[in-house]
Amino acid sequence: MKTTRAWLAMLPFLVALPAAAQDALSSSAGAGMSTQLVTVSGIVSSAPESVSFSGQAKVSSRLAKDPDFNKPRLVLMIDLSGIAGVGSTTGASYVVYGPEMVQRHVAASHSVEFTFPFKDVKSPTQMTARTGVASFVLDFDVNTGAVTKASGSVSSPNFPR
After folding, report:
1. Are residues 53 and 129 in the same domain?
2. Which one of 23, 42, 91, 137 is least enclosed by Cβ atoms within 10 Å?
3. In a domain, 50, yes or no
4. Over the stretch 6-24, which tens digit does the pLDDT of each residue have?
5. pTM for the full model?
């Protein structure tokens, strides 16, 4: 019984950890983070209309030391908020929300792919967001974690049916 109460008392702290880690990474963007703007474009084809995206993603990277095993990790934050979409039939404006955070083993090059939500600007009450896929090919300086070369694109998700 005492053990259960102890775990329940710790639960708010354990649940809040990812948000705290995200805030720490966001606030450390100036401390050791290398940032590069990457031009991104592509089309998400799905109902009710195709959406053409273009703009610049902000890719921030740094090396995170590992004092226990001496194997640093590459920490990436990819912010797509600089990318906007235009509907092919209605001309509606679409926006992308939130950054994506990724950790990888340190290597000279990585391919990173993730889904992202987007919504029609004029429908703030719309309860469901649509989904696109962002793909990046990133080259890094393995000594500093800085991005040395980058390309990105947007496409439609290929979810299994």
Report:
1. yes
2. 91
3. yes
4. 433 433 333 333 443 444 4
5. 0.75
The overall average pLDDT reported for the chain is: 81
Q: Do 19 and 39 fall into the same domain?
A: no
Angle at 39 between CA 81 and CA 106, to 5 degrees: 85
- Residue 51: pLDDT above 80? yes
Other CB atoms within a 10 A radius of the CB of residue 57 amount to 23
What total of structural domains would you count in the chain? Answer: 2
3-state secondary structure the chain: CHHHHHHHHHHHHHHHHHHHHHHHHHHHHHCCCEEEEEEEEEEECCCCCCEEEEEEEEEEEEEECCCCCCCCEEEEEEECCCEEEEECCCCCEEEECCEEEEEEECCCEEEEEEEEEEEECCCCCCCCCEEEEEEEEEEECCCCCCEEEEEEEEECCCCCC
Domain region containing 15: 1-31
User: What was the pLDDT predicted at 4?
Assistant: 38
